[in-house]
Design goal:
This protein is an all-alpha fold and 324 residues long. The protein has one domain: Farnesyl Diphosphate Synthase (Orthogonal Bundle). Helix content is 73%, strand content 1%. The protein contains 16 helices and 2 strands. The chain has a two-stranded antiparallel sheet. Strand 1 and strand 2 form a beta hairpin. The longest helix has 28 residues. The radius of gyration is 20 Å and the shape is globular. The protein starts with a helix and ends with a helix.
Length: 324
């Protein structure tokens, strides 16, 4: 059984072998720039781990893993434009280093390259994998639209938010595992259980990401802190704050949400102070723990030896303690 680290190392090597044309350089160089940093590579590694639960021939899942990673980086490239994020992985975002138009077109090209790689899958699982990839890609776009729609509203419920998170973040993690499982020959029930593990751990992952946007150490986080606060993103932290805040605290929170002209650092600091007053950090950590436990419950139902899923257990524990 491969470890998560071994899967990540294998993905790093395979990404370096991805062939891209030299010209036009403003189309392909941003793609190389986006794929170049040795990030966490969680999603493609999960494709390989999902396959390895049911098969020792993980090489058959590499094309799907690379397709998932290229697609994921396309979403990040476009998200940075929509969120006006200046930094990604301690470097300038593509739309800053080049232009927003170049980032848009390079992102479009990444989607096409992802489907090229997906087409390299061999065997009877291809059509099911292709269908799941399409379904997931559309859900990710739906989740991003909900995320943007929520920015101008103050009536978002926790249920609304969690549905958005499931679409924007969790389904890609879940699909990564299920795609790997299908390629590895898993039965339908086991593949579905692995999907549910990924869905729950994906929601926990995003809740933790939202938490870190406010509370992480900026030296280890890898991107600017406070972007969610500045853009009025309706994270669970903000939704809980709007639910709990009363009197002057609520008035101040609404003031910052409605302010059109403000100092970025001041807004981040003032809203963080409100979160601290309301103990939002504790509430968020508790919700992450709940989804983590639900994810582990799915693993317990999969029919395989304990050693086959031990790495996924370690992965889920790692998410609970990550700092970036």
């Amino acid at each position: 059984m491969l470890t998560l680290k071994e899967c990540q190392d294998l993905i790093h090597v395979c990404l370096k072998e991805v062939s891209l044309p030299e010209f036009p350089s403003n189309l392909y160089e941003p793609i190389r720039y986006m794929l170049e940093p040795e990030g966490k590579r969680i999603r493609p590694a999960l494709v390989l781990l999902g396959c390895n639960v049911f098969s020792d021939e993980v090489s058959q899942a590499i094309p799907a893993a690379i397709a998932i990673e290229v697609f994921h980086n396309f979403t990040l490239m476009h998200d940075d434009i929509m969120d006006k994020s200046l930094m990604r992985r301690n470097r300038h975002s593509v739309h800053v280093k080049w232009t927003p138009n170049i980032a848009l077109l390079s992102g479009d090209a990444m989607v096409i390259k992802a489907y090229e790689m997906l087409a390299e899958i061999k065997g009877p699982s291809f059509f099911r994998v292709f269908s799941l990839f399409n379904e997931t890609a559309l859900k990710v776009c739906e989740g991003q639209q909900y995320d943007m729609d929520f920015e101008s509203r103050t009536d978002i419920s926790e249920e609304d938010y969690l549905h958005m998170v499931e679409l924007k973040t969790a389904v890609l993690l879940a699909a990564s595992l299920k795609i790997g499982a299908l390629i590895g020959g898993a039965d339908n029930n086991s593949a579905d259980l692995l999907y549910e593990f990924g869905r729950n751990i994906g929601i926990a992952f995003q809740l933790q990401d939202d938490f870190l946007d406010v509370y992480a150490n900026p030296l280890t986080f890898g991107k600017e802190k406070g972007n969610d606060i500045v853009s009025n993103k309706k994270t669970l932290l903000l939704i809980q704050a709007l639910k709990l805040a009363t009197g002057p605290v609520r008035d101040e929170l609404l003031h910052w949400l409605n302010a059109e002209c403000f100092d970025r650092n001041e807004k981040i600091e003032r809203i963080k102070l409100i979160y601290d007053q309301l103990h939002i950090d504790e509430l968020s950590r508790a919700r992450v723990k709940t989804y983590h436990e639900q994810a582990l419950a799915m693993l317990d139902k999969i029919s395989c030896t304990t050693t086959r899923i031990s790495e996924l257990r370690e992965f889920s524990d790692m998410l609970m303690n990550r700092i970036k």
